[in-house]
Every structure is written in structure tokens, then in C-alpha cells.
Design brief:
Layout (H helix, E strand, L loop, with lengths): L9 H14 L5 E4 L4 E5 L3 E2 L12 H14 L6 E6 L8 E4 L2 E5 L18 E6 L2 H17 L4 E12 L5 H11 L4 E7 L12 E7 L2 E6 L2 E5 L1 E6 L4 H13 L1 H18 L3 E5 L5 E4 L3 E5 L2 E5 L6 H8 L7 E2 L1 H11 L10 E6 L4 E5 L3 E4 L3 E11 L4 H18 L9
Antiparallel strand pairs: 1-2, 1-9, 2-6, 3-5, 4-5, 4-19, 7-8, 8-18, 8-22, 9-10, 10-21, 11-12, 11-20, 12-17, 13-16, 14-17, 15-16, 19-20, 21-22
Helix pairs in contact: 3-9
Length: 410
């Protein structure tokens, strides 16, 4: 089924979006945004890799070719969905599904049906150790003192090993319930080449607060987030943190760098582009963020949502500035490969419309392991202790959805 019925009462939409979440099984594609919910199953066609070199080179053209071939084969699901990595060293994973269902936004009743997706014992292992992460932040600050690097985003991972299989459907339900205004996703991934024999599926799962770009007809929307503060359970302190964030010269500068880069990337494609003069505040259950909604109108209807996404990717919000120097620093300072973390996840249809969220607040999961990720933007004025604390706060989105509800202690 492609799309919901043309006319549907709100209760029907609510029932359908909830059913799509309940019907999710590992191996399917699930994507919920503030305006729609999607569930896709099976693989009709796979977008081929570039065949060496950078996997992102020519990716929009390859997607268009596969969608056209699928249409010529009388397949009536004109959508490619999946995940794009942080860089072209990892292959993008985009497929045309066998079936696709769509509904309106997720709506939950008042009953709390969240349960832990973990059964039995588990262990937590940070990579790198907190002290090593702080050393990396100090090294990044030294690079900024010595050269033209102005920002670098350094990440940590947290490995969760479980005694029993992870209940991905329950984890996805918990993420969707706790993050109704974000982008909740689950994407089937190809197995790693170094996977142990017998290891089951690999799934990219998370709840991103950040829209990279959306296209609907000629209308374009990007909503970069940069500059963050952890929420507090104390309402007075929570509001004070929000107020400090809006007045923080460090965070406002970090945000402005991102907005300038996004606008510069979009401007060649748009005949009009509206960039607000300053940011606003948005919040999740765990974080405050500085946010700017950038809107535009395309010059050329042939420009797809994926073309726009790749023109912007990676933004300074997930990489740094200047991009090449930041990317080099990440490669030297992070002790793991990001894979799909800080890439983008979403969909693009044959008309070029689509939505792409930044792949943050997420984990890569196989049967008994979750590898969580969190990063922080390092700029002049950052301190190792503060950036470590920011990553701890960002881990909470996944940890709380896993029923752990704890902070990662240094």
C-alpha cells in the first residue's frame, strides 16, 4: 500500500500510525517524523555501490536510475529508503522496498506501555574511556591554537552487551514515545565484514532531533541544530540552562558557523532562501538545542532531496569547520569508525521529494549488542570536562529508552 487513504478521519490515522509501529520487525525500515509515519518491508531493488572510491559520489543519480528501473518493471513503490554514512569509506545502504505503508504522525494515548527492551544482565563499556576522550578534546583544542581549525566534533561510543536478545520493537516503541517531535528510525544494515559467524541482523536505530533537509515539490526545509545544554529535572534550573544557552557567546558562534555552511550549500539550488537572523530554542526530554529553520524554493524541480542532503553533508554540526581539517582531526583522534553515525537516514521518492534526518541519538544493534554514539562540538572556549558531560547527556536518549535511565559516569 502506498500512502494512507485520500480521506481519513483523525482516529483512523492515529490507529494506522500506531499499528505501523506495532507491526515493525527487525529487518524492516521504520521512519517517523512530526508529520508522517512510514513502514517498509522487503527489498525489490538495491541501489548499487559506486564500485570503488567514494561511495557517495553519484549517489543521487544511482538512486534515480534504480527508481526508474523499478518503475519500468511495473513496481509501484517509487521510494528509495535507508541510511547514508558519515563518509564515503562506508557504502550507502539504500533500497527500494517490496511494500510501503504510510500514515500520519505518531500519536500515543496516556497509558505508559514502555518496558525495558533488555532482558537479564548487561555490561557497559565506553570506547574510548572517558579520560581518553578528554585527552582527545585537549588535543583538538591544541590543534585550534596552532592552525586554522575552528571546530571539530569528537564522538564517543558506549558498547552494551546483553545476555539475551535485544527487543528492537520495544526499543523503537520507547524511542518514539519519548521523542514525539523528532525523527524515530530503524534501518536494516548489511552485515559487517568482520561479523562473527552466526551473528544476526544489524540495525541502525535511534531518535534524532535534527532534520537535515526535506523537500516537498519546490519547497525546501532544513533545520540545523548546534549548541546544546543538558536538561534538568528541576524546572527552575532547567529554564536557567535554556536561558544561558541562548546567551552563550560560545554556543551562538558554534551555531552561526553551522547556519552559514548550510545556507551556503543550499543557496545554489534555491531561487529564494529565508535564513532567520538568530536561533530559537528546541528541546527533547534530555537536551536543549539552538535551532534555526531555513526555508527555500528550488530553482529546478529535478533537484532531489538526496541531492540537497549530500550537498550539505557533513555539516559543521557533526564534523566541524573547515570540513576537510575537521574530518582529518576526527580520523586522528577518534578510536573507532563512525559508520552510519552522523550520516543521514530517510527516504527519497521518484519525484525527488523526501526527508533526511541527521543520524544522531542512535545505536547500531545486533542480536545481543548495542553500540551507542554521542558527540560534542569542540571550539575555542570548550573544556574537556564540559564536552564529556555533554556526551553523557546525549547518551541518555538511548539509555533511557533501553530502560537504564542512568548517566555514563567519567
Amino acid at each position: 500500500m502506498v500512502g494512507a487513504p485520500a480521506v481519513a478521519r483523525e482516529p483512523e490515522q492515529e490507529a494506522l500510525s500506531s499499528r505501523l509501529l506495532r507491526d515493525y520487525d527487525a529487518g524492516a525500515f521504520f521512519f517517523a517524523s512530526p508529520k508522517r509515519t512510514m513502514l517498509a518491508r522487503g527489498v525489490f531493488a538495491t541501489v548499487p555501490d559506486a564500485g570503488g572510491g567514494n561511495s557517495l559520489d553519484g549517489l543521487p543519480e544511482r538512486v534515480t536510475s534504480v527508481l526508474n528501473a523499478s518503475r519500468d518493471a511495473a513496481h509501484d513503490i517509487p521510494v528509495a529508503e535507508g541510511a547514508v554514512p558519515f563518509d564515503g569509506k562506508v557504502a550507502a545502504h539504500l533500497v527500494v522496498p517490496m511494500t510501503l505503508q504510510r500514515a500520519g504522525p505518531m500519536v500515543f494515548d496516556g497509558a505508559n506501555t514502555a518496558r525495558s527492551p533488555l532482558a537479564g544482565q548487561y555490561t557497559l563499556r565506553p570506547v574510548p574511556e572517558p579520560s581518553a576522550y578528554k585527552d582527545g578534546v585537549a588535543a583538538a583544542l591544541k590543534l585550534m591554537q596552532q592552525g586554522p581549525l575552528r571546530k571539530v566534533v569528537l564522538s564517543r561510543s558506549l558498547h552494551v552487551d546483553t545476555a539475551a536478545p535485544v527487543d528492537l520493537r520495544q526499543l523503537l516503541h520507547n524511542l518514539a514515545r519519548r521523542n514525539p517531535h523528532g525523527y524515530t528510525f530503524a534501518v536494516d544494515l548489511p552485515q559487517r565484514a568482520d561479523a562473527a559467524p552466526g551473528v544476526g541482523r544489524r540495525t541502525l536505530i535511534g531518535a534524532s532531533p535534527e532534520l537535515l533537509v526535506a523537500r516537498s515539490g519546490l519547497q525546501v526545509l532544513a533545520n540545523p541544530l548546534a549548541g546544546s545544554a543538558a536538561r534538568s529535572l528541576d524546572p527552575v534550573e532547567d529554564q536557567a540552562r535554556a536561558t544561558r544557552l541562548m546567551a552563550s557567546p560560545k554556543d551562538l558562534h558554534e551555531h552561526a558557523v553551522v547556519i552559514d555552511a548550510v545556507a551556503e550549500a543550499l543557496r545554489p539550488f534555491c531561487k529564494t532562501l529565508d535564513v532567520p537572523r538568530g536561533p530559537s530554542l528546541v528541546s527533547t526530554q534530555t537536551m536543549w538545542h539552538l535551532s534555526t529553520r531555513i526555508t527555500g524554493e528550488l530553482k529546478d524541480p529535478s533537484i532531489t532531496s538526496l541531492t540537497l542532503a549530500l550537498a550539505m553533508h557533513p555539516t559543521p554540526a557533526v564534523c566541524g569547520h573547515p570540513t576537510a581539517l575537521a574530518h582529518e582531526a576526527i580520523g586522528n583522534l577518534e578510536p573507532f569508525h563512525r559508520g552510519y553515525f552522523t550520516g543521514t537516514v530517510g527516504w527519497c521518492d521518484a519525484n525527488g521529494d523526501g526527508q533526511w534526518a541527521v543520524t544522531i541519538r542512535c545505536a547500531e544493534a545486533d542480536e545481543r549488542t548495542l553500540r551507542l554514539f554521542a558527540g560534542a562540538g569542540i571550539v575555542v572556549g570548550s573544556t574537556p570536562e564540559a564536552e564529556l558531560a555533554e556526551t553523557e547527556a546525549k547518551f541518555r536518549t538511548m539509555l533511557q529508552a533501553m530502560g537504564l535511565g542512568l548517566e555514563v559516569q567519567p
